Protein: Plasma membrane channel protein
Amino acid sequence: MASLKSLYEPNTNLGNALHTNFDVDFVIDYRFATTSKQAAESQFTALIHALNSVGLTTEVRNGDNCAVLIFIKVASPRHLRAEVYRSRVQDWLYGVRTIAPEKDMQKAFTAEPIIEAERLRLVYLLITKPKNEGGAGITPKRGEWKCVESIFALHDHTFNKAWIKDLTSKTFLTQKDLTEIRNRFGEKIAFYFAFLQSYFMFLTFPAGVGFCSWVLLGGFSPVYAVINGLWCVVFVEYWKKQETDLAVQWGVKGVSKIQHKRPDFKHESVVRDPITDEEVKVYSPVKRLSRQMLQVPFALAAALILGTLIATCFSIEVFISEVYGGPFKSYLVFLPTVILTVAMPTLSAMLTGFAAKLTDLENYETVAAHENAMVGKIFVLNFITSYMPIFLTAFVYVPFAQVIVPYLDVFQLAVKPFAENEKQMTAPKAGFQINPDRLKKQVIYFTVTAQIVGFALELVVPYIMRTVFKKVKEVKADRASKKGGATATSTADDHPEESAFLVRVRNEAELSIYDVTTDFREMIVQFGYLSLFSVVWPLTAVSFIINNWIELRGDALKIALETQRPVPWRADSIGPWLDALGFLSWLGSLTSAALVYLFNGNDFGPGGNPSNIKIWGLLLTIFFSEHLYLGIQLGIRTALGKIDSPGLQKERSERFAVRKQYLAESMGQEAAEEAAEGGIAGGEKINRKSLEDEARDSTLQGHGTPEERFWGRQRGVDETLTVGRRYIQQAAPKASPRAGGEKKEL
Amino acid sequence: MASLKSLYEPNTNLGNALHTNFDVDFVIDYRFATTSKQAAESQFTALIHALNSVGLTTEVRNGDNCAVLIFIKVASPRHLRAEVYRSRVQDWLYGVRTIAPEKDMQKAFTAEPIIEAERLRLVYLLITKPKNEGGAGITPKRGEWKCVESIFALHDHTFNKAWIKDLTSKTFLTQKDLTEIRNRFGEKIAFYFAFLQSYFMFLTFPAGVGFCSWVLLGGFSPVYAVINGLWCVVFVEYWKKQETDLAVQWGVKGVSKIQHKRPDFKHESVVRDPITDEEVKVYSPVKRLSRQMLQVPFALAAALILGTLIATCFSIEVFISEVYGGPFKSYLVFLPTVILTVAMPTLSAMLTGFAAKLTDLENYETVAAHENAMVGKIFVLNFITSYMPIFLTAFVYVPFAQVIVPYLDVFQLAVKPFAENEKQMTAPKAGFQINPDRLKKQVIYFTVTAQIVGFALELVVPYIMRTVFKKVKEVKADRASKKGGATATSTADDHPEESAFLVRVRNEAELSIYDVTTDFREMIVQFGYLSLFSVVWPLTAVSFIINNWIELRGDALKIALETQRPVPWRADSIGPWLDALGFLSWLGSLTSAALVYLFNGNDFGPGGNPSNIKIWGLLLTIFFSEHLYLGIQLGIRTALGKIDSPGLQKERSERFAVRKQYLAESMGQEAAEEAAEGGIAGGEKINRKSLEDEARDSTLQGHGTPEERFWGRQRGVDETLTVGRRYIQQAAPKASPRAGGEKKEL
Structure:
């Protein structure tokens, strides 16, 4: 644990600064390096006034490099509680909570104390909500708040340390661990950890099956493909259920209905809502649709650009490794990898930036809609970059190599400087043999090497960068102070009691913002390799299970150390990633079937010659596999839908409690039962048997409606019974034929 | 309109009996022909007591043939209102209603009067609900109530007449018409009419396109196939939306959650529910699942039995019409049709009976689950009987005829008595030409002839039967009365004022029970022909549009005249038929693509020779078509999901009203705002500027926690502003470098 400790306390002289946050809820990093002094001052004044006007207390301290830090907490516990209460009532009104909060606030908070995530979320909303919704309307880096660099909560380092220690000491997270994450970091991040945990747990099965399959059956085994496909269905359907269940247990089911308005939304016109009579800002949906249509050319262009790059590098690599026979071959083989490594991130970043612009252009009203649209585009980009190389190998290189390779001579250019003669660079016109290991090697690269590299880029590199950066800064500061003169360093002003704390806060202000989308993307792409290509190399899941054990802890470390404490947003699901998961799982049924058909029993597959493939057989296999998949999916969905779960039980019991209470309160004794009783007891029980039939008949004939007369002929139960029995006597088969005869003159 | 009138008033001497129901809610037809007199009397007594115990008033009158009629109405309006109110509160608790009924009952019924369907449904439930749920527990023909033949409401003939007249005078039903049907016959039947109406309206499009396509493009046009597939998607998705919308407008959305227990449900054990603490009767779901598994062999056996019958008749027909050359050919051709006509209904009825037994065996707890399971099985049977002949022609006869026909010699037996020589009965070994018209003729048969025959069987035949039956009865009665002696006819006892009414009720007691499932089945099967095979004969939709205009009026006539008035059940959708609709629409994308691929540009298709088919081309076409279909479906579903509708608007406005009311009532002035105000106003506005920094610092150092001291350094907004401005002055880039210098000694 020593290394963890050293990781954890990068600066040991911070001492007890890690143990208290001085009750600070949020810190605003106010930077004015590029603003005039006057503007900075007036914006600062406006900022403090805005914060105070919504019931927040502020303290200001010096920051690093032209910055001040504004510390924020809620002015009074009473105000906080009112905010929490209001939010809970809103939840109830939107159907997120089944039970309304107790009308007595005191009781409400005893029954359900305020959790940290709830407090931080509401304070953050208080700071950032628009003014007409009761917030201070502070929007970092935007509009009138250009100087507000970031708004962040302070890490609870005591908790973080215990948390990381706890995580590293166990294999599986319990429900309690997940709830703890939710209490600290909010449901959105808790859902990520819950997903990762479920995925990790589920991976044990394909890892076991994969290992056995690798030992016994080798690659491209139809048995493994079927089991793997089945596992994908079960996992996706299980997660859907698990997701709903967690949402119910955390009291956030349907929370996505409570939408946060996007501050960047630009409205075209203001319309009065006929229902709520409020003014609503609207943007023509037709216009938005027409802009959304741009996604199609965007996806095509991205596929074309990235595809061309990948295909080119791929072709060069094939050319060099399998055609080229000249010197430096073993070095030249890395040429395409170098091209890819340089060009790909640049292109990806460019396309991601373009995707962000496109999403802005689509101008969504709510934060959630905006994020979902962005996630969709990012998924498309990642799909292309992650899977296209393997698709090219499996479905272009292997079946068509003999047709294509002779045309690869165009890449002579790449090796011309090194080749000694023409022959070294000319593809053989016939008899070209494909490299059967290429596909497997590629899958191993993406599922092992790339995962490790990714982890390093995600966690280790930033850590080193940060350490180096800090060292450089320290050296610079040292040199500056040696050069003489009391330059206005930020620390000079610090009160000794707070100085260690302020150093810590200044460090946290420098950290980047945690984005759970990136981590989700990584996991979904990983799931894709398993679903689409693991039939090539069944050990895939074994690699992933190791990777994901580290990944989960690494992500926790990243949140705790590498990034600012995230705002604890709520969520009721993993959102659009679920669709991506379902899509990859479905696509897996197609690719696995195709791979098995092409390669089973023959590592060369069609051996580069398309005429070796029976296309109708391939199509039939895919068709069959897909429909089997869809059928099984339907079955599993139905079966899982019938199984009870803690969340559903909780929901039912809450619903029942509400019903019972309501009935006991307002219906029960009073209105209904009394009315019902009255109906039964006070009916038409007149029963005056003494009246003769004829007499009554004549009395009735005179007055009353025909209906009254109809219902008056038999007064009370007894008369009905008498008359009925007589009818039965008369009509019953062969029993005293004239029993009721004497009464027939009625 | 003359014929309608005569249809409507089959017995003109009923006179004004059609104009009043004497306030009768329900009539029980109590038949004791097969029961001993004593048992009949005691059961009758129990029946009357049971009815009276739940607040119902009874009158008894004589019935036909060993029967008495028990007339039922709710004892007092107050009791009825209490029932309605209780039901509305239950709706609210289950989330069917958004707004709770007014606590003041008087107001509640003024705002929302009791509609007829609501009254009849609740009275029916009062009669039939188990005793522990507050009903009388009368279960017709079951258990202790063997003599209760049926419980039926009386037709409102005045309404019925006006209704039929109105329906026949217009082409499209309006929203108001549908709501009227719902008010009279309940949501379940109203949904049928709404579906039929939407379907009819939508049919205009494929009818138009089909006609143009028939004139311009002929059969098997890919253009028509694509348009038809697109139409199917749009229609199914539109109906889903429309269905929800209607459910909201009729206030029944989610009503399927309120389940009616099945009286026939047999429990294995009684468990105490941990949540509700009520005793629940349970049946092992594993056992049920194992019995549900029987559906698979059932479906296979049904397919085998019906399939064999159909295939045999089909083969005989092909043999006779295309191989046989002997005498009587033109008569013998009808032989298989005769076999089918005789055997099919018998087999179907047998299998349906078997399906019903199987469903009983599955032992569902609720009426809805039972019905859905039964509908599923009926759909499978209907699928086989309706579509298999065409499937055989299109995908067996046309591609494989040349292979199969030589083997048809086995059917020589069928024609042996008529043939003159062997040659007449021997298939040519080669050069057999398929009949290209067979497929089209078959489709025309199923979409025109069969529809007309079905209509006749459904409406005209029962009408004739009933008329003849009545005539026979009249003649018999006449003869009996002529024979002499005052036999105890049922009418002898009638009060003259009621006698016409009683004659009418006795007639209604003889009518059969309306089953909306049959009508739904007919429409769904019809939709199947359009979706699966209309590419063969594009005029299909034209035939259907004519048929359905009549069908809707015919069904209304059937309800009004041929059957007892149905119990107005509620429903929030068309239930499992929606799945059948989706399935047929999807399957259509496969069959249409296959038909177009096989037959386009060549009426002979592959001409009976399988080697003429490029299987990979066929598979690719189907694969492409299916995925295009699924993609478009997703798109249309998303697009329709974004469109607003009257129902959704109603829902939103109700939700909003609830929210507004709640906030106004309990939150608004009191708790929240006051608390919030307190927070802002009473914060830390101490602002004692006079205190010196040093002085304060020392005072604070002595006592208070570090947190208190941290937040105490700047008291109030003004001090924060002052300090903040000073920091900005100090750090701001290149602006009066030592401006705040003199204050630095803090």
Strands of chain B lie at 26-31, 56-62, 67-74, 148-153, 269-272, 279-282. Residues 1-14, 668-695, 735-746 of chain B have pLDDT under 50 and may be disordered. The first helix of chain B runs from residue 2 to 8. Chain B is about 65% helix and 5% strand.
